[in-house]
Design brief:
0% of the residues are buried. It is built from three helices and no strands. The protein is mainly α and 69 residues long.
């Protein structure tokens, strides 16, 4: 659970902004959306495989770009 402590003389808006940023960084909303409905194991495997492929492609592009200098 994310929590933020209000500083002295801190406005509610800045506290709320800090809380939202913390929740976003912790990935709580993304996790909530992911768990909202049941995901079949086959769909889960397909999603993980696609993420791995994207990550691999991204890292290979970065490697090629760094090597061309």
């Amino acid at each position: 659970m994310s929590d933020v402590v209000a500083g002295p003389d801190e406005s509610f808006e800045s506290l709320l902004k800090r809380f939202n940023r913390k929740v976003q960084q912790d990935g709580i909303l993304a996790e909530l959306r992911r768990r909202e409905h049941y995901e079949k194991p086959s769909v889960k495997r397909k999603r993980k495989k696609a993420a791995k492929k994207r990550s691999s492609a991204r890292s290979s592009r970065m490697f090629k770009r760094a090597g061309s200098r």
